[in-house]
């Protein structure tokens, strides 16, 4: 595990460069993508690089980590909507090659074939992750088995509270989600994780220094052969 302590602007640009390097070195790159506040700057840099002609997404396939159960892809807090708004609508990607888990309809059948779909696409070349204040990655909350594949899960009270900032009222935050599992994530060939702000300090300590335990889901990343952690001073403050 490599740890880089940087300022936000450098985190955003260096992580975008990691993506660009992988995309430009592969015929059919497969990207693992995350939503939330953390990757926004990275996506803005990728949009810029695409407009400047430094990278093309024409041959790229993407798989997103998770989706809320109960939200249509057109809902402004759904992760499909987030991806369209913050990345896909602004780059030269073929939208039919962008995969986001479904949260409505026959979402269970889709969820069950998701890991197979990833495998058939060649596996994820580079996966970006954020981290929850409780140590979750994707929506793998504390207690999720390390050998989990894509599944449905209940969100913890902490996650519902953290994510309520994006909804009108906490009662509107979905209580369930579908998510790639910890094993699905560990299958990615390369992982880059971003964590900024004091609220993430405890989780970042568990990620880097803590024991590898299912109570701190992110700690499994200590076992990944190619994982780089991008943090700012505040998120890193308990590790020093
Ligand atoms: C989102 C996801 C989540 C977030 C985490 C941090 O696809 O998988 O694990 O990365 O909840 O969210 P932010 O970045 O909003 O603090």
Largest sheet: 7 strands, parallel
Q: Which percent bin holds the helix content? A: 25-40%
- Report the uncertain regions: none
Hey, roughly how much beta strand do the residues contain?
A: 15-25%
Strand neighbour order, sheet with most strands? 1-10-9-6-2-3-5
Shape type: globular
CATH class: Alpha Beta
Rg, Cα atoms, Å: 17 Å
- What is the average of the pLDDT values? 97
Individual helix count = 8
CATH topology: Rossmann fold
Mind sketching the topology for me?
Blueprint: E1 2-5, H1 8-25, E2 30-33, H2 40-51, E3 61-64, E4 66-68, H3 79-86, E5 98-99, H4 107-120, E6 126-129, E7 151-154, H5 157-163, E8 176-179, H6 182-186, E9 191-195, H7 201-208, E10 227-231, H8 233-236
Parallel strand pairs: 1-10, 2-3, 2-6, 3-5, 6-9, 9-10
Antiparallel strand pairs: 4-8, 7-8
Helix pairs in contact: 1-2
The structure holds fructose -6-phosphate.
Could you name the key traits of this structure?
7-stranded parallel beta sheet, 8 helices, Rossmann fold, 240 residues, binds fructose -6-phosphate, 3-stranded antiparallel beta sheet, globular, single chain, alpha/beta
Account of the 3D structure:
By secondary structure, the protein is of the alpha/beta class. The protein contains eight helices and ten strands. The chain has a single domain, classed as Rossmann fold (3-Layer(aba) Sandwich). The longest helix is centred in the first third of the chain and has 18 residues, at 8-25. The strands form two sheets. A seven-stranded parallel beta sheet has the order 1-10-9-6-2-3-5, with helices on both faces. Strands 4-8-7 form a three-stranded antiparallel beta sheet, covered by helices on one side. Bound molecules: fructose -6-phosphate. Fructose -6-phosphate binds next to loops.
């Amino acid at each position: 595990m490599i740890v880089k302590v940087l300022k936000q602007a450098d985190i955003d640009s260096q992580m975008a460069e990691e993506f660009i390097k992988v995309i430009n070195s592969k015929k059919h790159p497969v990207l693992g993508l995350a939503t939330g506040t953390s990757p926004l700057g990275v996506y803005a840099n990728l949009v810029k690089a695409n407009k400047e002609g430094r990278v093309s997404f024409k041959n790229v396939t993407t798989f997103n980590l998770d989706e809320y159960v109960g939200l249509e892809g057109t809902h402004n807090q759904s992760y499909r909507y987030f991806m369209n708004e913050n990345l896909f609508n602004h780059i030269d990607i073929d939208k039919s090659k962008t995969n986001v888990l479904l949260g409505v309809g026959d979402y269970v059948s889709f969820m069950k074939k998701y890991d197979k779909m990833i495998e058939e696409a060649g596996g994820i070349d580079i996966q970006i992750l954020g981290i929850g204040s409780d140590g979750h990655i994707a929506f793998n909350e504390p207690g999720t088995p390390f050998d989990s594949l894509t599944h449905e899960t209940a969100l913890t009270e902490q996650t519902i509270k953290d994510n309520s900032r994006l909804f009108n009222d906490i009662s509107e935050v979905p209580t369930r989600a579908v998510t790639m599992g910890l094993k699905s994530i560990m299958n990615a060939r390369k992982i880059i994780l971003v964590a900024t702000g004091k609220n993430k300090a405890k989780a970042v300590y568990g990620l880097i220094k803590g024991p590898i335990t299912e109570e701190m889901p992110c700690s499994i990343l200590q076992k990944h052969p190619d994982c780089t952690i991008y943090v700012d001073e505040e998120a890193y403050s308990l590790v020093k």
